[in-house]
Amino acid sequence: MAPDVMAVVLCAALLHAGWNALVRSSQDTLRDTVLIVAGAGLWALCLLPALPAPAAASLPWLAASVAIHVAYFLLVARAYRHGELALAYPLMRGSAPLMTAMAASALLGETLPPGGWIATLLIAAGILLLGLDARRRGHAAPGVLRTALCNGGVVALYTLVDGQGVRLSGSAFAYTGWMFVGTAVLLGIVLWRLRRPALPALLRSGGRRLLLGGAGTLGSYALALWAMTRAPVALVAALRETSVVFGLLIATCVLKEPVTRVRVAAILTVAAGAVALRLAPA
Question: Where are the transmembrane segments (predicted)?
Answer without folding.
Answer: 6-22, 34-53, 59-80, 87-108, 114-132, 144-161, 173-194, 210-228, 234-255, 262-280
